[in-house]
Structures are given as structure tokens and as C-alpha cells.
Specification:
Distance between the termini: 80 Å
Shape: elongated
Oligomer: single chain
Strand order of the largest sheet: 2-1-3-4-5
Number of helices: 18
Structural class: alpha+beta
Helix content: 40-55%
Order of helices and strands: EEHEEEHEEEEHHHHHHHHHEEEHHHHHHH
Length: 511
Amino acid sequence: MVIEVQQNGWFEPRHPATKMPPKTEAAMGTPVRRQEREYDQVAKTWIVRTLNADGTISRREERGPAPKPRRRKSKSTDGAPRPRELTDLHIEALRELCNSEAQKATYYPDNKLSGFFIYVGPRKATWIYRERKSVKGVRRMVFKMLGDWPKIDTMEARKRCAIAMGLTAQNIDKEPEGAPIKFEAAFSAYLDYLKAQAEKKGKPPRWHDNVKKLGDTIILPEYAKWSLIEMSDNPDAVADWHKRVTKKHGPVSANHCARVIRATYKRAARRNRKLPVPLPTSAVDWNDETPSQKALAFKAFPAWLAAWCKIDSAIRQAYHLTGLLTGARPGELARRHWRDYSDNERTLTIGKAKAGKDIVIPVSEEIAAAIKMARADAEALGFDVGPDAPIFPGCIQKGYRDNLPARGNMLRHTYRTVAADLGVDDLISHFLLGHAPKGISQKYIATLILANGPKMRDEQGRMSKQVLKLLKLDAKGLRKAISEALARSRVAGQERARMTRARSSAVQHEG
């Protein structure tokens, strides 16, 4: 039997043994209407008794559904332990229980200090401070080991946990005074500076693009919302991040990212004297970097020639062959224009090179043949060959696609290896490669180059002949290889043009 009591329109459960109270509320002058509802399981009806205002009780029956039984939720016994005050006696009991019943290692929380845990395992018990924090909009777990029990008792562990909580609040939650400069804004200003420097020197903003890519993919996801003052005050966080980047992206990328952070901070510090003097990267342990010095082995030259002959563009073939014969940097060579080449003087000028000066390379017969090969193919394919047109159009981004045993900087290292094998003087090879020899002032380099001009041209010719010899070619064989390459390039160019026209026609037909 179920009884419910209704007062002022609201029903409340009441035990069946509870008697109807007297009309005390009515005696106080408060109009009260009380009801008692009882469900008869046999008749399937509700018996309603009502206490009227005059003290009489009326009774009636109503039909209706049976009341739903109320179920109490059972408490789970296999969940995480409930917080309780941790004491040394309690931990000793937990250790004995873990050893006797082969219980799994468990974290036991404390109910007095948030984030304070004892980790009880089969071999030892360790005090832990862990807490979820929102760091610059990113939720993460703060975790710190405070020591082992019983070497560190409960009172000492609580002190250490309170200190850790205070340090976390100071380093993460507290905002610096004033209007802090966010790293994201400083990084954007540094990118503008790099772009302006490239335009000032008349060079493409290659380093600007590389830094932007590093920032978008690695640096900004971590430090976009950090202020520069916070980064300077937390060098250990930057050092730990550098180690994580090393594992994920490699040692060179990690060092590049750290250098970008350092340069960004220095650039901002020149404009804001309130920034701390210590750099954010002061605690970084820099990775060792060994630049690649790979060169094409002399016995692999014929294989390089065979792969070179399979390239379907004579312009790209000329680009790679010129790089092998001159040792020029691949990017600087790809950006040369026809105004930089003088057929009468047989020179190729690398303007505004990496060292900051113009490099004048003497051109041998073999180098001239490779450059003329590029011009012939450009004219056949309809490219512009004016003074402002590039010598090797389309090679700035496409050089890496060619499947060669050596390309790019590896050809530059090969050139240096050939020079050393022929016994070319180090000073001459440095000038041919566009290096500034150590210990020589810049104002004397131009004088030395003029004084060694004939010698540089002779050595360039000797090295070009040696390269052809290693390729198992002579002057006649080179002309034949160039002629065949031009023929293949024209056929491939016509096929590409036909496919382009077909795609354009299909698009117009669909439109």
C-alpha cells in the first residue's frame, strides 16, 4: 500500500503508519487543504481522503495508474577511491593491503588539499601533486612527484604540495603587470622585419617563408598566447619544449625554432626596454648539427649522366649540368637572368649572393654549351629570352623533382671535390665557389680576384674538362647529348601543350 499526502496542491510521500494530524493549521487561521491518497492493489483504484476546513474528512475513489516503484541507485564499489584525509597510519594500512591482496597500483586523493595524492604501488608509495590547468587556453595536466613515503611523511608532503601549488599559480595563472607583449604579436613583427630586409637586399623572402612555416606548424601552437615576460621567466619550459620538438621534428628543426624565438625576443627587446634581460632560450641545450657534405662519387658519374638523359626538359637538364660545372648554389643559379650572362666576356654574375657581394664566375666552353642549351629550349617552347627573363625558367621549385643521384647542394660539394682532386689552389676554389676566405678583409677580395682572374679562368676550364671525363664524354659527345636532349624536350613540350589544350577545351565544353 502506498500513501501520498498533498498539501496546498503538492504531494509528498508519507509512511502508511503516519496518522492524519489534527487541524492545527485551520485553528491558526490558515486555510489548508490536506489530502491523503491510498492505492488499493486489489480494486486497482485510488482512495482519496480529504481534510475539510470544518474538520470533517471526506472520502472518494478514483481510477488511475499504479504508482511507479522508486529505486535507489546502488553505489559502485569498483571505481576510483573516494577522497579522505591522508595520514601515515592510513597509508601504512594501504601498503599492507596492497602487499597482501595483490591490489593494483592506485592513486588515493586527499580531501583536505586539492591535487594532493598518494600513489600506492607494489614496491613503494609516492606523494604526487597533479591538477588540470588551463594554460593559455589549452588544458593540460600539471604533474609533480613530491617524494616517497615513509621518507617523506604526511606533514612534509603537504608542505611540498602547497609549495608546488603556489609555484603553479605564480607561473601559469598570474598575469604580469602592465600590458604584456604576446609572443604572437612579436612574431608577426619579426616576420615583417625579415620581409623588409629581403626587399632591401633585392632577394626573395626565402628565410621569411621558412620562419613563417616553422611558426605556423611548431612555435605558435605552443607559445602564441604566452607573453614575452612569461617566456623569459620560464626558461625551463622553453628548454623542455625544445626537447619535445627534437624528438618529434628532429634536432635541426628544434634548433631553428629556438633561434627564431631568440631572434623574436631580441627584436622586441630593442623596442621595449621593460623586457627582462635573460633570454627565453637561456636554458636550452642546443643539439649538435653536422652539415651534410655528401658529394657524388667519381665512379657514380656515368649513372648520373644516364639519369640526366631521362629528364624530359632540356631547360632542367641545362640547369643541373650548369650546377655541376660551376658549383653555384642551386637557388642563386635558378634566379639568374639573361642580363647576368655575358657571352662575349664569358662570365656569369651571381648578384647579391649569400655572402652579400656579387660573384663573377668565369665561363668555360662546357658551361657556355649548357647555358646555350637552356636558351635554345626556351626559344623553342616560346619562353621569353629577354634581359629580364630567367635563364632557367621554372627551376626554382621543380629542381627537386628530378630523380638524379646528386642535385642541388650535393653538386656544389661535388665541384669542390673535383677541385681538390685536381689540386686547385684553395684560394682559387674559394673565389670560384663565392666564399669569402677566412682572415682576408673584404676590401682586398676584389683586388685578389682581379689579380687571379686568368688563373681562375684556366682552372675553371680544367675542372670542366675533368667533369666531362668523369661523365665519360668529350666535346663531341657533349654536343650529341645536348642535341638529343633538345629533341626529347620538344616532343615532351608538344605533348604537354596538347594535353593542356585538351583540358582547356573540355572545361569550355562543360561550361
